[in-house]
Amino acid sequence: MKKILVTGSLGQIGSELVTKMRSIYGTDHVIATDIRDNGSEVVKAGPFEILDVTDATKMYNLAKKYEVDTIIHLAALLSATAEKKPLLAWNLNMGGLVNALETARELNCQFFTPSSIGAFGPSTPKDNTPQDTIQRPTTMYGVNKVSGELLCDYYFTKFGVDTRGVRFPGLISYVAEPGGGTTDYAVEIYYEAVKNKRFTSYIDKGTYMDMMYMPDALNAIIDLMEADSTKLKHRNAFNITAMSFAPEEIAAEIKKHIPEFEISYNVDPVRQAIANSWPNSIDATAAKEEWGFKAEYNLEKMTIDMLEKLKRKLN
Ligand code: VAH
User: Fold this and answer.
1) Of ligand 1's atoms, which has the minimum distance to the CA of residue 178?
2) Looking at the structure, do residues 73 and 151 belong to the same domain, yes or no?
3) Atom 7 of ligand 1: nearest residue by CA position
4) Which of 66, 141, 174, 202 is catalytic?
5) Within 10 Å of residue 128's Cβ, how many Cβ atoms?
6) Over the stretch 218-240, which tens digit does the pLDDT of each residue have?
7) Considering the domain boundaries, does residue 290 fall inside one?
8) Are residues 310 and 179 in the same domain?
C-alpha cells in the first residue's frame, strides 16, 4: 500500500490532493507537510508535519520516519511572485526540488512534481503547442520549470528514480485560493462574481491561456502515478489541458448565470507580459496515448460547479 509524503500540502493543489489521496490510500498513508500550520482540515484530519523544503535533513528524516514510498513535491512559488522575487524563487523552487529528488533517490521513492505551461516561452509554437518543442521561457518561474523537467528526467535516467510530471495549465478551484499566479484571474473572477457581480481583470481581453478545473488536475496526478511505467515514453513533463479561454469568454459564461455580472480591465503589465509569453493552447495527445489522460470539465460545466460551490462557501 502506498505511503505518500506531500510537500506544499496547504497550497491550491495540495489542500485538495491530500484529502483526495487520503480517501483513496487511507488517512494514515498520506503525510501532509507545509512550512506553516493553518489549522485546516488537512492538518487536523491526518498526519501533518511542518517542513521547509529547503531543509534537506528534515525532509529526509520525515520520509524515513514515515517510511514513505512516494513523494509528491508541490511546494513552490508561482509565476508572478517568482518574477517579483527571482532569487528567492530560484533558491526555493530549485533547492526544494533537489532536496525532494535526493530524498526520493536515497529512499527509493516514486516521485511527482508539476511543471507548467510556464515552461514554454515566446519562441514556442503558440497554438496546439506540441509535447516536444522549443522551451525558452523568459520568466524565472519558466526557467525553474524547464530546469525542473530536465532534472527530473536526469534522476530517472541516471539513478532510476521513477519521476513523473505534468505541465499544468492554470488551475481553477474553490477550496484554497491560489496565490501569486498569472492565471489566478480565472479563480478571482468567480469569487468577485458571487460577492460583487463585477470583476476587474488584470489580464487583457483576447489573452488565451490553457486552464483546468481542479478535480481534473487531481485525477491527472493520481492516474499518472498509477500508470504502467512501461507505457510511458515521456516523463517530465506531460502536456495536459482541459480548455483554453480568454477573460471575456469566462465572463460571458458567468453572465449566463448572473446576468448583471460585468467585467472591466485594468491590465497588470507584469502578469500580462508573462501571459503573452505562454501558449494559447497546448496539445495533450501524448498524455492521452501514454496514460489515458482525460478531462471531464469544460468551461460550461466548471462554471456551473464553481458558482454553486462558491455561493455555498461565501454565503
Ligand atoms: C501560475 N497558476 O499562474 C500558475 C500556473 C500555468 C499557470 O503555473 O503561475
Assistant:
1) 2
2) yes
3) 170
4) 141
5) 14
6) 999 999 999 999 999 999 999 99
7) no
8) yes
